[in-house]
Amino acid sequence: MNTLVTKIDYKWISLTLRNPWITASKLSTLPPEPVIPSKKPLRVELLGGKRYSWCTCGHSKKQPFCDGAHKFKAQGLSPLRFSPEKDSTVWLCGCKHTNNPPYCDGTHKQDFIVSAPLHEHTDP
What ranges make up the beta strands (E) of the chain? Predict the structure, then answer.
């Protein structure tokens, strides 16, 4: 019986080490950090009463708006949905680090954004 238990324990340990069921990324309770698709704000014309989804992850190919890329590339982040009261031209944040989402507040001028790499889209 001792030999059987040892073989089972060895097999379980080797399978666990080769194919861990729980990875470190799944243990984190923090949402992923957004990537930086642009270091400048994006000027857009918004229609009053229309509902918009601003990309918060930075992976969308339709910046500054969401295209659903967060579902595969940034699970834990979701778009910010907003609806302006009236038609307006606004500057939406392109760096995804604004303190006034979805609007630009100048955060892109700070050193941590200026020195950060821009995200480049890669197709699978």
Answer: 42-46, 52-54, 80-82, 88-92
